[in-house]
Prior knowledge:
Elements: E1 9-12, E2 15-18, H1 34-37, E3 41-46, E4 62-63, E5 81-88, H2 101-108, H3 129-137, E6 146-149, E7 158-160, E8 163-164, H4 165-168, E9 173-175, E10 178-179, H5 186-194, H6 199-212, H7 221-228, H8 233-265, H9 278-294, E11 300-304, E12 313-314, E13 319-322, H10 323-327, H11 333-359, E14 371-376, E15 392-395, E16 406-415, H12 417-426
Amino acid sequence: xxxxxxxxxxxxxxxxxxxxxxxxxxxxxxxxSVPKTRTIRSAYLFVVNGVEIxxxxxxxxxxxxxxxxxxxxxxxxxxxxxVLTGLTQFHAFANGDGPGDHARSCACWLTGVQPxxxxxxxxxxxxxxxxVAAQHIGHLTKFPSLELGCERSGLAGDCDSGYSCAYxxxxxxxxxTTPIAKEVNPRLVFERLFGNxxxxxxxxxxxxxxxxxxxxxxxxxxxxxxxxxxxxxxDLQKMDEYFTAVREIEERLIRFENSGAIAAASGVxxxxxxxxxxxxxIRLMSDMMILAFQADLTRTCTMMFANDGSNRSYAQIGVPExxxxxxxxxxxxxxxxxxxxxxxxxxxxxxxxxxxxxxxxEPEGSLLDNTMLxxxxxxxxxxxxxHDNLPILLAGKGGGTIQTGRHITYKDGTPLTNLYLDIxxxxxxxxxxxxxxxxxxxxxF
Length: 445
């Protein structure tokens, strides 16, 4: 049986549709050495304004049994996660720089570096862990990295007590002076993932699909038919599942774009392309990440649920007040309850992502088995603005190298960046130092 080239794509006007990992892409003798056949991904999902930490932290160390209120939506996938307590981002503290914890916590989260306090153009931070990975393994995929979010990035102005907006709205930093702006429009992400890199052809393809109400799959149907004739039953099933996922995302995009066009015509609503439903926005962006991982378009991704310090309303879950306002609870039980609701809402979106990743089977394990996904914040208690004992969760098994289903407690002050050294080694981007790291993190791998 001839092996299918791993870089095979389906072509159509303005379209290059990458494929998921198929058995036909793997030489038969490779199955005898499982670690060599696995593609390992890393992802970093950032939530803002801290969490209500007493309802986040499991009551005991060791195996995860009953999950606390905020983490309870993860019950179905708890065997695929580790909750890590005691990790710190020391350089998110003031350390003589005064107020500005939201900006520092965001800028420092993936770099472990104290950002220079400035609201001007002379910003300075460090290279983030995702970009270290991109520098080492980015050449293996169409996109070295993928940066996603639900609130637009700012690159200028004062957003937090003398800190540039670049700090509070970006977690991905290519180098010490270059943040990488995230994409917040799911349609633009979709077209980028499956476009052929020719803007005129891509725009014509999208316009024709919208006019004729066609799917991107219709444009690659001829190539798809030829390919399917070469595949076995299990690969055919995987292709059908993948195509179904692509078509379902397209249908959701069209649905909210149509409703957005109606709202725009009446003078209300969000800009066309951004879902009005916040949960749907998060889930669509997560689905883009999953598609990109599934088709090996990238192996590292960052996603910000919001910019740090965001005062977004959560009226859809009964919290019409702003998130930042509720994080400054002052011990008020009513505000604390509303903060817990917000934190649980975020975890519900994470649960959606992890369940979907676990359902996608690869030749060796699931997509979640072959991923390391860090979820958490750069602030622990939003009221205290502390950056130790951070809420950090590590999901996925890293290609079978991670023992999951546990709550692990570390000595207070242990650098969060130590975790990143382990992740980098397992994705093939080993480095001895990242920010304030002091060595690899014990007890996970």
